[in-house]
Amino acid sequence: MPTTLTSRRGLAGVAAAVLAVAAAATVTATGLGRTATADAAEPACDGVLFDDFAYDSSADPDIGARGWTVRTNAGGPGVPGAAWPAGNVSFPTVDGADTLQLRAATDGTGAGTSHAELLHQRKFFEGTYAARVNFTDTPDSGADGDHLVETFFTITPLDAPLDPDYGEIDFEYLPNGGWGETGPILYQTTWETYQAEPWIADNTHTAQRESFAGWHDLVFTVADGHVKYYVDGELVADHSGKYYPETPMSLNFNLWFIDTAAHTGATSVYTQQVDYVMHSAGEVLSPADVNARVAGYRADGVDHTDTVGTGGGECPTPTDPPTDPTDPPTDPTDPPGGADCDTAADWAFSSVYTEGDTVVHERSAHGDPNGPKSGDGEHLWRANWWTQGSEPGWTPQWTDLGAC
Predict the structure, then answer these.
(1) How many degrees, rounded to 5, is the angle at CA 188 between CA 164 and CA 75?
(2) Which site from 141, 167, 203, 347 is most exposed, i.e. has the minimal number of CB atoms within 10 Å?
(3) Can you tell me the distance from the alpha carbon of 382 to that of 398, in angstroms, rounded to the nearest whole number?
(4) How far is CA 230 from CA 26, 187, 240, 257, 371, in A?
């Protein structure tokens, strides 16, 4: 089994050793229709997302500027009537390191239930996906036993029932079971499509029926017609055929309750934590390669990079010194400006928009279109797919084309 990093964030100290081992080894990187053998010190890195979650709070402007959305809109999955408050997403310091934390709570009622979700843009397809995730079997407070789902996944919107272009790739951990199963159980599920009413699920899944409480390295690769899942360096699932995705997907973490049937007592609170997330487009990395790459970014002092879709990007190199902290960074919150808004209509909550439609809108301050404005001014927004009632600036259905 490839070596994995058992220390949660002691990477600064081991980075040089890990990268020295990686540089001495020869790895095979398989891309889209190509296979190339290269030194681990010279991987492709043509388009990479790496995020160490160094944010102040769910209101940090860098979150949106870097393509993330903190979900606040109501709806599924999960308990009907549950809220998705921005405050359920936080970035505490854990073991001296910045960490994404998702919070979910329930008192057994829909109104007393809240979920959490952080999602990225819909621009991810073939390549390697990785995250280090801390699953929990027990609540931080309150009675145990709730049917909870802890996740790391990618997804394409369902444009119509049984949409053949739908795609979804899931790690889902159910510590107390659910969906007719007893827990704990870790699912790897790859979807062709589904229909909500009546329910039709067209997917394939693999499962490990044991506890996964604690920190785990999760990796899945999408290449050459196969979706392969790895847990702590071990291959646990290989899905192919019609279940292979056809379209770009968004990247997501969420924490939610399937139902409240197993709830007892007052309010129970659960948390899921994420150390980092990484995607390398068009490049198949082993779990050991992923660990070496992450160690390299941290050794170089990089807490975020995103070149996915640009065709550019650089790999971390152990010999390069960290970025000079005295150099002032470019403010990612500054809008590009100059967008032509003259021909676009104002965004309307009740209107239906399809891919390519443009609107003018100043996003709200807190994800409530009827609430106060953000102060960002009007921007031009382009719909990424069919949408209705999703406010530009707060949901992944929209791309910001700049200030008017």
Answers:
(1) 65
(2) 141
(3) 5
(4) 20, 12, 15, 25, 44
Q: Which residues contact 264 (CB under 8 A, 6 or more apart)?
A: 108, 143, 145
DSSP H or E run through 290 = helix 287-299
Residue with tokens 């990479």: 48
Helix (H) or strand (E) holding 294: helix 287-299
Distance, in Å, from the CA atom of 106 to the CA atom of 118, rounded to the nearest integer, reads 19
Q: Calculate mean pLDDT across residues 353-358.
A: 86
Q: DSSP secondary-structure letter at 64?
A: H
pLDDT digits (tens, 9 = 90+) for 39-61: 333 456 779 999 999 999 999 99
What pLDDT band is residue 279 in, cutting at 50, 70 and 90? very high
What end-to-end distance do the CA atoms of the chain give, in Å?
A: 54
Smallest CA-to-CA distance from 44 within 291, 295, 313, 306 is with 313
Residue 371: burial class (beta carbons within 10 Å; 0-12, 13-18, 19+): exposed
Alpha helices (H) in 140-286, listed in sequence order: none
Which pLDDT value is given to residue 165? 94
Identify the H or E element spanning 21: helix 11-24
Please tell me whether the peptide bond between 248 and the residue prior to it is cis, using omega within 30 degrees of 0: no
* Cα 209 from Cα 175, distance rounded (Å): 10
Here the tokens at position 288 are 């050991």
Cis peptide before 198 (omega within 30 of 0): yes
- How far is the C-alpha of 140 from the C-alpha of 134, rounded, in Å? 13
Spatial distance between the Cα atoms of 279 and 285, rounded to a whole number of angstroms: 10
As a whole number, the mean pLDDT across the chain is 84
- At 26 the pLDDT is 28
CA dist., res. 122 & res. 248, Å (int)? 6
Asked if 388 contacts 350 with a C-beta cutoff of 8 angstroms, the reply is yes
The whole-number pLDDT of residue 15 equals 32
The Cα–Cα gap between 66 and 306 comes to 8
- Give me the residue label for tokens 């073939």: 126
pTM: 0.70
Among the residue ranges 60-64, 78-82, 385-389, 391-395, the one predicted with the least confidence is 385-389
